[in-house]
UniProtKB/TrEMBL annotation:
Belongs to the enoyl-CoA hydratase/isomerase family. Pathway: Lipid metabolism; fatty acid beta-oxidation. This is Delta(3)-Delta(2)-enoyl-CoA isomerase. Transmembrane segments: none annotated. Its EC number is 5.3.3.8. GO terms for cellular component: peroxisome. InterPro entries: ClpP/crotonase-like_dom_sf, Enoyl-CoA_hydra/iso. GO terms for biological process: fatty acid beta-oxidation. It comes from the Eukaryota. Keywords: Lipid metabolism.
Length: 243
């Protein structure tokens, strides 16, 4: 489902396999476990670190596992499963908000719904420009946005017209337009180039030797409403400064 490896000072978190990396309970649990490992290792070795998240195959992530939800049988049981995924995924956003290192999403394939939210939960977003698209599918599926999804989008998509097109228009946005609209930072030719650039950026950021707890607290201060929405507004990370 996912792997975590260390390349120099960079943790590489990879969603594995050739499927669409649906965010069901098992994958969400695996992501949280990997992020917990990265957090512990970074705090035990204060020399500087960064995290890159990427994926195998043509999808970065295709959102929540709606097939698993529907397999529950009745509409009420399916709704309960969907609500459970919404609740389980909020701590992933919280984990990324409080991770004591810079984070980079390498969008190596399509990112839809919760998969789009996963990418936006990172500090830096790089994207392949040749084929991948970003897509919030909730409007097309007739599903309301979780409150913290909307808070995340408002925090990371500053142009109100782009927010309208993403949330209310269910627009499928390719790399070139995503870059022009400020959703992603840079574009690359394909998945290999995107991952290579993300790892390079991660190594550069890790090389700054920033104090992880200070970085995390500064990130939280930048997005107070989002921290409140996912329940980490009052959570404090403490460590010695460089003074």
């Amino acid at each position: 489902m996912c792997t975590l490896e260390k390349r120099g000072r960079v943790f590489l978190l990879t969603l594995t396999g050739d499927d669409d990396h649906r965010l069901g309970p098992d994958l969400i649990a695996a992501l949280r476990s990997a992020l917990s490992t990265a957090r512990k290792e970074a705090l035990s070795d204060p020399g500087g670190a960064a995290l890159v998240t990427a994926a195998q195959g043509r999808f970065f992530s295709n959102g929540f596992d709606l097939q698993w939800a529907k397999a529950a049988g009745s509409p009420s049981a399916a709704q309960a499963r969907l609500e459970s995924m919404v609740s389980l995924f909020a701590p992933v956003v919280a984990d990324l908000l409080t991770l004591p290192m810079p984070t980079i999403a390498a969008i190596t394939g399509h990112a839809a719904a919760a998969g789009f939210a996963l990418a936006m939960s990172h500090d830096h977003v790089l994207m392949r420009g040749d084929r991948a698209v970003l897509y919030m599918s909730e409007m097309d599926l007739g599903l309301p946005f979780p409150d913290y999804f909307m808070t995340l989008m408002k925090a990371k998509i500053v142009d109100p017209r782009t927010l309208r097109d993403v949330a209310l228009g269910a627009m499928k946005i390719g790399g070139k337009e995503a870059k022009e609209r400020g959703i992603v930072d840079k574009l690359y030719a394909g998945p290999e180039e995107t991952l290579e650039a993300a790892l390079k950026l991660g190594e550069e950021l890790a090389g700054r030797g920033w104090v992880g707890s200070v970085y995390a607290e500064t990130r939280k201060a930048a997005f107070p409403e989002l921290c409140k929405a996912v329940g980490v507004a009052d959570e404090k990370l403490t460590a010695a400064s460089k003074l």
